[in-house]
């Protein structure tokens, strides 16, 4: 930590209606994730779960996130390294499997731990300047913030292996093709776009959102038979909530909006 940084908010938190906006704010270090950043991010994530119905994570400056703060990493003993990695897992798990959906708004470098953070969010919106990379192999280290579990599941083990062995960078368009992000938007537009999506998700029934973010990844890890069995129980629970009754009736009495073709 530099002296000029010690009294600064390295993670900003803002509540915009029902959407919490969490901003990595260490632009001079390209939002590299130090121990202080992890603690501040954990606090912001916990606060969002209590106050908001959806949240957006973004970064200030030229890049979303340059990953692990390499200046801190060199000083760790092996056991400190394990605890450090587990501390990242703890906060990223709270993002992936908490109370509310998380969206990430990506631009510039989304690399190493930055990609691990983005992969913990449910929807990734990349602007045209975004590039993804896992440079751990070239730095003599290994992923430690959950990439071997999350990034491998998103883009496939073969592509992740390629990223790690060759250190290649992947553009936003290629990243969408590889499932590293779900949306690609114009330069500088990711944050507003992600907030808009988060606002839409915030309108869903809480039980539906909770079921989506918790049941889908679990079902993905189960056998087909177990997945279908769990699905029936989640579906029945969600459908019997008062919110479901209200929303189904709104459709039937024609007060709910109709779906339409995306081009219209
Ligand atoms: C950093 C870091 C960092 C920048 N840790 N200080 N991550 C990486 O291997 C990515 C390393 N970073 C880069 O490749 C580039 O910095 C970027 C492509 C992200 C941005 O480039 P650029 O030209 O805009 O910035 P810069 O001039 O390289 O960096 C500006 C400052 O940020 C500079 O410090 P300064 O004091 O000389 O001004 C950099 O040293 C500093 N900086 N990135 C520390 N990562 C749980 S395991 C996860 C494992 C990983 O994440 S490994 C991947 C680490």
UniProtKB/TrEMBL annotation:
UniProt-listed InterPro entries: ClpP/crotonase-like_dom_sf, Enoyl-CoA_hydra/iso, Enoyl-CoA_hydra_C
Gene3D superfamilies listed in its UniProt record: 2-enoyl-CoA Hydratase, Chain A, domain 1, Lyase 2-enoyl-coa Hydratase, Chain A, domain 2
Keyword Transcription: no
Keywords recorded for this protein, A-Z: Lyase
One matching Pfam family: ECH_1
Any one of the GO BP annotations: fatty acid beta-oxidation
GO terms of molecular function: lyase activity
UniProt xrefs under SUPFAM superfamilies: ClpP/crotonase
Family: Belongs to the enoyl-CoA hydratase/isomerase family.
PANTHER family for this protein: ENOYL-COA HYDRATASE, MITOCHONDRIAL (PTHR11941:SF54), ENOYL-COA HYDRATASE-RELATED (PTHR11941)
Protein name: Vanillin synthase /trans-feruloyl-CoA hydratase
Organism in which the protein naturally occurs: Pseudooceanicola nitratireducens
Lineage: Bacteria, Pseudomonadati, Pseudomonadota, Alphaproteobacteria, Rhodobacterales
